[in-house]
Write a structure and sequence with these properties.
homodimer, mainly alpha, Tetracycline Repressor, domain 2
Chain lengths: 211, 211
């Protein structure tokens, strides 16, 4: 399993990538405004002028960093995908490949979603506006989970998969579980993240069979 | 847990509900055409005239059954939700509340998705076009899973949940698993449904912990 999160992901338009810290801050302001606008109104009902107004930057400044509304949306999807990864990464630094770490990762994800509910609307709308970015987000996320499960199996603390398909199914199943628990308990509900994560973790740890 | 799939779901606009078998067939032709058009072009790029052309019905006939493009979309979401339920229902008639039945249900769902890939595009777009229908689809699906798990626990073949939150987390986790396995292996890939379902079922049956 390739450790995809260590690959350097190029910005969507490298010719326009900021070259200075100040430029990076301006690009960040635009992305944050895009998150707020796209996350509230959706892609079709958001114009570049709404983004620049919220970001408090001039229209010309926008075009210094992005060529179009589509391009800032694609950059935002990549940014949200990275934000999700970063929200979970710290709790994985200890005990990667253990079921306890997976529980902490799920709890961190649920907290992140509760605080950034727009993440669903943006990534879900990417299915229509930026299908390649949508698919990359889930493929990269599943690859990271698969990698952790492989570490857990190698360390002897998780069941080894029977074959590559088994390994891939596990990763996609756990990702789907996390995404839907985030939707139900992070966006639509306000249940305690730790309690939800503990319940989710019991399912993938012990299964449902009566022994 | 309420057995929601036994409730009679009213058509979206009961004043326009067909009163004859012929009317029901015409409404069905319109819904099938809507599925093909919305599923290919998406909501924004589909007009009522494309739907009526594909359905081979007059524009006036369309308005006999639906008031607007939004309304036919809402009816389609409800219809797709029902199609998913019906695709899975036959394999659940035997052994409801067992892990074997859940495996068969997942395999049936994966086969359905492989044959009707538009179902994802339509239900996912409902998040933006028909948020209430989107949420109802997942709440109803989760309620059906929760009901089956409750039967399994009552029959002593599945672990009992610790509390109502645990029961609800299990249902949403399993639904999320099924949805993402359908996306990965039904829409984006063509792996054997039975093999994928078996692998997914091992995860929820036995868990990942080394005993």
């Amino acid at each position: 399993m390739v450790d995809r999160h260590d690959e350097t992901v190029p910005l969507t338009n490298s010719a326009k990538a900021p070259r200075t810290a100040r430029g990076e801050r301006t690009r960040r302001k635009i992305l944050d405004a895009a998150r707020s606008e796209f996350g509230t109104r959706g892609f079709a009902d958001t114009g570049i002028t709404e983004i620049t107004r919220t970001a408090k930057v001039a229209l010309g400044t926008f075009y210094t960093y992005f060529d179009s509304k589509e391009e800032v949306f694609r950059a935002l999807v990549q940014d949200m995908s990275e934000q999700v990864r970063l929200a979970v990464a710290p709790v994985l630094s200890d005990g990667r490949g253990t079921l306890e770490a997976e529980e902490r990762a799920l709890a961190a994800f649920l907290s992140f979603v509760g605080q950034h509910q727009q993440v669903y609307r943006i990534i879900d709308e990417a299915e229509f506006v930026d299908p390649a970015g949508f698919r990359a987000h889930y493929e990269n996320t599943a690859a990271r989970i698969a990698e952790r499960l492989a570490e857990g199996a190698a360390a002897g603390v998780m069941q080894s998969p029977r074959d590559p398909l088994d390994a891939e199914v596990r990763a996609w199943a756990i990702m789907g579980m996390n995404v839907f628990l985030g939707l139900r308990f992070g966006v639509w509900g306000e249940e305690d993240s730790a309690a939800v994560a503990a319940a989710g973790n019991r399912l993938i740890r012990d299964g449902l069979a009566r022994s």
